Amino acid sequence: QVQLVESGGGLVQAGGSLRLSCAASGRTFSRSTMAWFRQAPGKEREFVAAVSGTGAITYSSDSVKGRFTISRDNAKNTVYLQMNSLESEDTAVYYCAAGATTYVTRRHTYAYWGQGTQVTVSS
After folding, report:
1. Residue 89 and which of 3, 16, 44, 82 are 20 to 30 A apart at CA?
2. What pLDDT score was predicted for residue 102?
């Protein structure tokens, strides 16, 4: 049974930093893209960042570019999201996703999802 478990969310002041982790179990994802999406209240789930299987290629949405960094450790089957210079607009539930090979910014291409972790940025 495949599981993705996110951790690291919480409450932080604007300008602060958080590091999210997503640990995968049940299978290895070293050959497929892993990603982070987020969903704010009343809004659709949106793409945040993705990283290729080897970690060599990353993608980021324009809204987080320069502030968030995605990385992965295949030995630990874990993906990370380092979030710096957080803004109130970053408040959302953050979801880890895995299993995509193409169209990596589209949520429907991911086969596996975590339960999400809440990130709240106070202004």
Report:
1. 3
2. 85
Residue 89 tokens read as 């607009």
Mode of pairing for the β-strands spanning 10-13 and 117-122: parallel
> In Å, what is the CA distance from 22 to each residue of 7, 13, 41, 76, 94?
6, 23, 22, 10, 10
Give the position of tokens 């999802």: 113
* pLDDT tens column, 53-103: 999 999 999 999 999 999 999 999 999 999 999 999 999 999 999 988 888
**CA atoms lying within 13 Å on the CB side of residue 66:** 3
107-111 own/partner pairs: CB under 8 Å, 24+ apart: 107/37, 107/45, 107/47, 110/35
Dist CA 108 CA 5 (whole Å): 19
Question: Using one digit for the tens of pLDDT, what is the confidence trace for 7-64?
Answer: 999 999 999 999 999 999 998 888 899 999 999 999 999 999 999 999 999 999 999 9
Residue type, 96: C
Q: What is the C-alpha separation between 90 and 121, in angstroms, rounded? A: 7
